[in-house]
Amino acid sequence: MSLNAQPAASLFIDGRPVEGEGALLPVHYPYTGEEIASLRQASAAQVAAACRAAARAQPAWAALAPVERARVLSRAAALIRERNEELSRLETLDTGKPIQETLVADWESGAQALEFFAGLGPTVTGQMIPLGRDWAYTRREALGVCAGIGAWNYPSQIACWKAAPALIMGNAMVFKPSEETPLGALKLAGILAEAGLPAGIFSVVQGRAEVGAALVADPHVAKVSLTGSVPTGRRVYAAAAEGMRHVTMELGGKSPLIVFEDAELEDAVGAAILANFYSSGQICSNGTRVFLQDRIRQPFLDRLTERLRQIRIGDPLDPDTQLGPIVSPAQAAQIRQAIAAGQAAGARLVCGGAGEGAFVPPTVFADATDDMAITRDEIFGPVMTTLAFEDEEEAIRRANATGFGLAAGVFTRDLARAHRVVARLEAGTCWINAYNLTPVEMPFGGTKLSGIGRENSAAAIEHYSQLKSVYVGMGAVEAPY
Ligand code: NDP
C-alpha cells in the first residue's frame, strides 16, 4: 500500500495548482513517521499574488445571485460525499487520526457546513425601516478578502467551516493550513474549482507562522479567521487590529465537565471519554477538567477505567482502531511533559501514562487540585484531570476559575439544576447530558481567552459580512440656510 500523498503542487492560487517558492515543508504520517509528501512554502510574493487574485475576483462573485453561489457550494458538498473514503484516508495520513473517526467526523462535517450555508445564504435579507415620509434599508454585504488560518487537529473541517460562510456571503478566501497538516485544504480548493468556483475565490498558501503573518498583514485582507492556540490568537488579533480588520478567533480551552451525583453514570462516563480521548484528545473544546461530586467519584473512576481498558490503540488505517498516534513527536513530547508534571505535583495516575513512540494512552488523573498545571493548562492530548467537589456553588465557582471560556458540560438528571448551572458557566458552548457535539446548526465559539466570534449556524453569517445602511429621501431637501 502506497503512502505517497504528494499533491500536484504545494499551493493553489488563482484557480490552479502552483508550486511554492519557499522552503521545503515535509509532511509525515504520524503513525510511522514516514514522509508522505514534500511541499514548498509560499514566498511573500506568492501570498501577495493570492490576495491580489482574490481581490480581483471577489466583486464579480459577490455580484452573483446568492442561489448561484449556493449551487457551487452544494456541488462541492456532493463531490466531498462521493469521495469521502479517499479524502478520509488522506486526512488519516495527514493527522494520524483513526479512519473510523475521519470517515464520519472530518470531511462529513465539512460537507454539512457547505450544505448548510448553501441553504442559508439565499435567505439572508436586509431590513426595511419606515421613517415617515422617508425610509431606510439595510444591505448585508461581503467584507471582501478573508484570510483563513487553520490548526492541525481538524484541518479539512476547519477549512470548510471557514470557507462555507465566507464564500456564500460573496467573500473570497485565502487559506493557510497548519504546516503539520497541509493536504486537506488543497483537496478542498480542487473540489471547489471543480464545482464551478471562479478562479481566485478560494486559494491555499502553505507555510509556517511567517506565511500566516504575511497573510494577516496583506492590505487586501479585510477579515482574519484563526483557529489555533491562545498565544497565536493574541499575536494574530493584534496584527489584524493594525488594519482594523474583522476577526474570528477560535482558540484553546480547558473546559469543565461537571458530573453531579444524580447523573446517569454510564452516560457521564461515555461523555467524559468522548470529551478527552476522541482524536487522541487533540480537540479544543475537550472537557479536560472533570469535576466529580463526592458520591459519584469512585463509581465513575471505576467504570471509566474499566471502559478505557477496552480501547483499541494502533494502526489508524485499521477500521477497528479507536485511538491513533499523536500528530507529531513534538506534540507527544509536550503531552508527556504535562503528564510527568502532574505526577510530580502529586496527582494520582489512575490509568495511562507516558506511552511509547507516537502513542500516548488514555491517561486519567485523580486527586488533582485546581492549582496544578494539569488542571490549569491546555494539554491538547489524551489526558483527563478529575477533581472532587461537594456542592453546586463550589462546582460553578471552580469551573469558572480559568482564563479560558470555550466550552462546558453538565451531567445531572435534575433539569432545573442543569439549566441553572449552565446559565452561570462562563463558556461559549455548553452541553447538558452530552459533550462535544457540534452540529452545524448550532453556534460554536468561545468567551474570555478562548475567542471572539462564532462559527457555524446563522451567527457565522454576521462574522463574514457587514451591514450597510441606506437612507432614502422621498421629498424635498430642507436646508436651514
Ligand atoms: P497554533 O496556534 O500553533 O497555530 C494555528 C495556526 O496559526 C497555524 O496554521 C499556524 O501556522 C498559524 N500561525 C502561527 N503563528 C502565526 C502568526 N504569528 N501569524 C499568523 N499565523 C500564525 O495552533 P495549533 O496548530 O498548534 O493547534 C492547536 C491549538 O488550536 C490548540 O490550542 C487548540 O485548542 C486550538 N484549537 C481551537 C479550536 C477552536 O475551534 N476553538 C479548534 C481546534 C484547535 P503553523 O502551524 O504553520 O506554524
TrEMBL record:
Top EC class of this enzyme: oxidoreductase
The keyword Oxidoreductase appears for this protein: yes
Active site: 250
This protein's UniProt keywords: Oxidoreductase
GO MF term set: betaine-aldehyde dehydrogenase (NAD+) activity
Domain Aldehyde dehydrogenase: from-to ranges: 23-470
EC number of the protein: 1.2.1.8
Keyword Ligase appears in the UniProt entry: no
Family per similarity comment: Belongs to the aldehyde dehydrogenase family.
The protein's name in its UniProt record: Betaine-aldehyde dehydrogenase
Organism (species): Paracoccus siganidrum
